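My hope is that you will study the record closing this message with an eye to the fold:
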Amino acid sequence: MVTQEQKPSGNDALEEEISERGDSGQQLAGHYMGFGALLRRWRKAAGVTQYRTARALGMSERTYRKIERGAMPPRLSRTQCEALSELLRLDRDERHALLLYNVGSMLVPPSGSGQPELQQALRLLIDRQMPSPAYLCDQHWNILAFNTAMAEWWPWVMEPGANLIRWALTTPEARAQYQDWDKHASAYVKILKFAQATRPNDAELRRLIEDVKKDPDVRHVWETEHDMGETRDGHVFRMNVPTLDWETIEVVSHVLYPASMPDCRFVVITWIEGHGDDERDALGGVRDAWATMTANENDVATAQRHAQNRAAEDAATRWRREAATLAARMVVATADEAAALGSVFKDR
């Protein structure tokens, strides 16, 4: 008889080996990637079976095996993290990493946003950028979500009210981490001026600008920089990262706009290794070419049109969703009434 506290007899090592390989006997893709690989390494070092680990987490062994093979797990609770830490005898740094993986990407939706299922999908996308740092911010650069790599490289994103522009322009950490900080300060000021030109009545944007201009260095950049810039998409630059023992690395910034949250920016920072030097970056382009890029009034007008189109599309999507929900709740007596009701929604 098998009780809940017992596992059927068998060769645990053989079962784990089978679970880690496909039918062809080849190593499964993604096996050594992400959170699952970390769990597997900790578990192997502690000499604990997959079965015991699954029980500590309150899940089936099958589910746990999929996580080790690369499936994205649900957020582990603090209680689960503590149980796992005890079972696998994790040290202080390992416990910290475990918590980062499970609190690092909780999506905070901007006010007024809907579609929670799309927000969860977006959070999954952010997680899947590992090992590249990734984050989501709103139109005022307030951090809404981030993955573990982002939290490990730049812990400031975990602070209440974290804001990219405020951190980049006003903190000593940013000045130490950005190489040629003055060029980056000019780039962010250009972005603020572009936002100001496209959203002149935005009170929160105005408060952010006044806030960063309290710093005398930023005020000087604001008064001497007369150009504008829309985003930092495609910028290749050097940074000194504390988590990497202050190693100077080269990164590229990718900026995208999610269709379900069109006012937000989804940003991925990719660490690239190449043959860059003072003249050429790691992608072969002119070093810091982005520092001389500018936007003009035509770019402002185009951005305003795009924003209006995104808002209209978002409103249409909301109306279709609300109409579908309403229609699903309606009960009519005859087929003719149903057809008439359908034509109303079609015309709308």
